Recover the amino acids of this structure.
């Protein structure tokens, strides 16, 4: 699958976007743990899903410490999407 980095979708910039599967992968640092930012992320996910886009989020620490898990989860989502 081809992913585009920092891809614009409507008023948002997706960290990674696969057009073929309509999948956004977001990587969240510690700032996203803040309630206000978490609420914004939820609203953003809701809007993107309104465009028929699947959204998956991973913490930066997951990518840094367990990249195989992250890649495995992305593969499972892609398989589920079909």
């Amino acid at each position: 699958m081809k992913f585009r980095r920092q891809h614009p979708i409507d008023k948002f910039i997706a960290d990674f976007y696969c057009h073929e599967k309509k999948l956004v992968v977001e990587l969240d640092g510690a700032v996203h743990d803040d309630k206000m930012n978490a609420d914004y992320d939820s609203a953003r996910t809701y809007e993107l899903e309104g465009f028929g886009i699947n959204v998956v989020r991973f913490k930066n620490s997951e990518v840094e410490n367990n990249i195989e898990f992250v890649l495995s989860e992305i593969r499972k989502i892609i398989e589920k999407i079909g």
The chain has a mean pLDDT of 94.
